[in-house]
Amino acid sequence: MTKPIAKIGLRKNARIGSKKNERRIPKGVIHVQASFNNTIVTVTDVRGRVVSWASAGTSGFRGTRKGTPYAAQAAAFNAIRTLVDQGMQRAEVMIKGPGLGRDAALRAIRRNGMLLSFVRDVTPMPHNGCRPPKKRRV
Questions:
Q1: What digits encode the pLDDT tens for the residues 78-91?
Q2: Among 14, 31, 74, 113, whose Cα sits 20 to 30 Å from the Cα of 130?
Q3: What is the domain count for the chain?
Q4: Model confidence at 26: pLDDT above 90
Q5: Does 36 fall in a domain?
Q6: Which residue range forms the structural domain that includes residue 88?
Q7: The domain spanning residue 62 has which CATH number?
């Protein structure tokens, strides 16, 4: 008489818990890259590993509307929303670029109830290097 083999799980290589959700990040770095055409918000841990990101394009804006302050605010909200639930309380903010979304993204980050240790402008400035492109016509 043969014994029936007990089933361990339904799927063969099923993971018990998602590894991404297990990682609790108390402190992180929020990078805001604001160009004239788009705003990209990337959230990393202290070591620089990307945890989440969003842009005005992934937030549902297309064309010229991607460069607006409202699109930058939506991108910042989308990038941070999951991390607040995971338990991120403190963050450092690095802002780069000349775009309109700089201030709007910073306001959206502050509104999410995160404690900011510092805000730093890391826009690259040449020490009279290459000739810059022609000024933008509005």
A1: 999 888 888 888 99
A2: 31
A3: 1
A4: no
A5: yes
A6: 27-121
A7: 3.30.420.80
